[in-house]
Specification:
9 helices; four-stranded antiparallel beta sheet; six-stranded mixed beta sheet; about 325 residues; Immunoglobulin-like; 3 domains; about 25% strand; alpha+beta; single chain
Length: about 325
């Protein structure tokens, strides 16, 4: 309730109790919330919309919120300056947030970075709302309604000539095609080369110190790794051969399902029962769509002396 004095005496008027939240800052906070949902929810995180919304979250929104907090008045900056500084400050602020996270227990990972950038953007937006409220009539506002009305009148207005009409149509079509092309390129990035990593490491997890000179009963200990870069789920199968003789493998080595970009590592210990020099120990990787020809082939040349019987054991990498 607000009182004011009129020629006839004191009068009262109802104050608008509706919270003052500028439309542009509403839009900023809504975009932050939607981006968080599309990144954190498993059902939405695989959608290409995640990429489309993630770009402004990193390149524009933090800087725009900061500019809104620093310059709440409509005479502080013009529209072009606000947009340019929004991009520039976003590119500066987000790496600084990441640098700060690097010295925390959370580190530079997706969730901590997302939460930090979101919190910064929302906090700057709330400060901007408060500062604009204090500016009253001098507060900066984005005239969305006036922009819409002006654009509609510009589009629907009758051109003065046939040439003007044709040029207007060509311009509108060109803008729409540019936007559609940009969204398509961002949302559907080009796939790289399809391949599978297949490797064997020594017992220390390095690509050396393989046990190749053995006494009967000693084992060849390696770590086998598979990484799927096929842009699709793939079922793999592993086979072990010594001098072209197939060695029985546990079931978990014969069926290895992997999603795209997933990594599988297991340690494998094999003690040969045969003795000899320069025996070829092969690690063959097959795909489910072709179990005849190996998809990848790795091997070690081993020497085994003595007459003790061997044994075979496989264990999971801890």
């Amino acid at each position: 309730m607000k009182y004011f004095r009129s020629p006839t005496g004191w009068c009262k008027t109802e104050m608008n109790s509706k919270p003052f939240i500028p439309a542009d800052l509403k839009l900023v906070m809504a975009l932050v919330l939607l981006t968080d949902l599309f990144i954190l929810l498993p059902s939405l995180s695989s959608s290409p919309i995640r990429t489309v919304m993630g770009l402004p979250m990193v390149l524009f929104l933090p800087g725009y919120a900061l500019i809104a907090a620093l310059f709440p008045g409509k005479d502080d900056l013009d529209g072009i300056e606000r947009i340019a500084l929004s991009f520039g400050l976003s590119i500066a602020v987000v790496p600084l947030i990441g640098l700060g996270l690097n010295y925390t227990p959370w580190g530079i990972r997706l969730v901590p970075v997302l939460v930090s950038v979101s919190a910064f953007t929302v906090a700057m937006s709330l400060i901007a709302i408060d500062r604009r409220k204090r500016q009253e009539d001098n507060a900066f506002m984005v005239p969305f309604r006036q922009m819409y009305v002006s654009l509609r009148e510009e589009v629907t207005a009758r051109p003065q000539s046939r040439l003007d009409r044709i040029l207007s149509i060509v311009l509108i079509i060109s803008i729409l095609l540019s936007v559609v092309t940009l969204v398509y390129v961002v949302a559907t990035p080009k796939q790289g080369e399809k391949f599978t990593e297949f490797y064997i490491l020594g017992p220390q997890g390095m690509a050396d110190n393989y046990s190749t000179n053995l006494v009967a009963g000693e084992s060849v200990d390696v770590i086998i790794g598979i990484v799927n870069h096929e842009y699709a789920p793939v079922n793999y199968s592993l086979e072990l051969r010594l001098n072209n003789e197939i060695i029985d493998m546990p079931e978990r080595f014969r069926h290895i399902p992997l999603e795209h970009n997933a990594t599988w590592e297991q340690s494998l210990s094999f003690a040969p029962e045969l003795t000899g020099n320069d025996m070829k120990l092969q690690y063959l990787l097959y795909r489910e769509d072709n179990m005849i020809e190996p998809y990848r082939d790795l091997h070690l040349w081993i020497n085994v002396t003595g007459t003790r019987n061997g044994a075979y054991e496989a264990k999971t990498e801890s």
